[in-house]
Design brief:
Blueprint: E1 2-10, H1 11-23, E2 33-44, H2 47-59, E3 69-72, H3 76-89, E4 93-96, H4 99-106
Parallel strand pairs: 1-2, 2-3, 3-4
Helix pairs in contact: 1-2, 2-3
Amino acid sequence: MVCTYSGFANLQDILEAVQKYLMHPDCSRFKYIVHDLSNVTLFDFKEVEFEGLVTYAMKHYQDADYVPRCAVTRNDTVRRSLTLYAELTGREWIFVSTLSDARNWAGTV
């Protein structure tokens, strides 16, 4: 599964993608999720959005939610935000610079 973002993005966009994944009837069959943020020109977040993302992830943790997550980005703010998210939720993120790198990573999962 690939979630693609472009232009302005924020944590709310990632939260919505996570919600869609967790509600998807086949989420237990997904091998990986790639969040392609390579075309994002601006990324920011408010503290309340970050709290919402972590709260949602903690409340809606499912046994099927073991799927590895990969973020395609060169943006340090995105990396720091998702690294903190990973530390708080225990859901690791892999970071790569290009969608091609993400596809190579997905082939190893």
